[in-house]
Amino acid sequence: MNYMINKIIAIQGNHPLKLNLKTDTTIFLANEIQNRKYKIFYYEPKNLSILNSKVIAKGFFIEFNYSQKKSFKILKKTTLELIKCKFILIRQDPPFNLEYI
User: What is d(CA 7, CA 94) in angstroms, rounded to the nearest whole number?
Assistant: First the structure.
């Protein structure tokens, strides 16, 4: 099965509640991803695991919206095998920690 046809982009980063709607480029990038009709799966580094030789993350599908007071909506919490994503965008405020490695 070719997972690359999936229109899912994963974002690894700080929880969306910690993002600044006006200055954080993660929200800008997420908005562009949505404009291209991709689904966004969002997770934090602490929720990344390897299970039976598969890279998985516990997170949620999310939708961002600049025009609302609350800039995002969690659509569905789930665990996802990351090979199903077209690519993974890694965004996190410094300092970086070893959870990424």
Answer: 29
